[in-house]
Amino acid sequence: MAEQKVLNAVTALCRLTARGDLAEPDILQDAGRIMADLVTTDDWLPDAMAQPHPEYYRQYLLYGDPLDRFSLVSFVWGPGQRTPVHDHTVWGVIAMLRGAEVEQSFSMEDDRLQAIGEEKTLRPGEVAFVSPSIGDIHRVSNYHDDKVSISIHLYGGNIGRINRHVFDPETGRRKPFVSGYSNVLVPNLWAPGV
Ligand code: FE
Fold first, then answer.
1. Residue 187: inside a domain
2. What confidence tens digit (pLDDT) does each residue in 85-138 have?
3. Is residue 129 part of a domain?
4. Cys-Cys with 155: which of 24, 98, 110, 159 at CB 3.0–4.6 Å?
């Protein structure tokens, strides 16, 4: 059953985040492996969590750990959609499921945003990482102007509730934001009616 795949990933992530004895690089390595495994096939994401919105990218909560140790989110990009420049304040793993996305990383220097390196394209099966310790500011876009792309994101906290920031790319000025989730009435995959 396709749902078993995401259940297996959630079980592995529960075990990983419950350990408490691992440094962040080790957590990211293991979490990266679990997430890469999750996106080896694109046959498990329920349609309800793959729906784009005509105007905004969507963030569907697939699973939220009751102790807020991690959250698993389906990011659905409509054609041409992109995020503002933003940070996360916790570690994150991005695993590409369908289509492709483009990431530009930034650093903050002297209150100015500096682009780091070239844009990177993430393709199905590939994973990328963010965290305050390895680089936490980026802007992400759908690679495609004519179709939906979907990536599965894992964060080391309840990302929909975390206080974080968006940045003005010209001035570097930052504004607080809390992203929430697009499916507030459907808290996880196992809620009735999903
Ligand atoms: Fe991000």
1. no
2. 999 999 999 999 999 999 999 998 888 899 999 999 999 999 999 999 999 999
3. yes
4. 159
Ligand 1 midpoint to CA 140 (Å): 7
- Please tell me the distance between residue 63's alpha carbon and the centre of ligand 1 in angstroms: 18
Count of other CB atoms within 10 angstroms of residue 51 = 15
Range of the domain at 53: 2-177
DSSP for residue 7: H
Question: What is the identity of the amino acid at 163?
Answer: N
CA-to-CA separations, 55 to 69, 78, 82, 95, in angstroms, rounded: 31, 8, 10, 23
pTM for the structure as a whole: 0.92
Question: Is residue 120 situated within a structural domain?
Answer: yes
What CATH number does the domain containing 16 carry?
2.60.120.10
What distance in angstroms lies between residue 58's CA and the mean position of ligand 1's atoms?
13
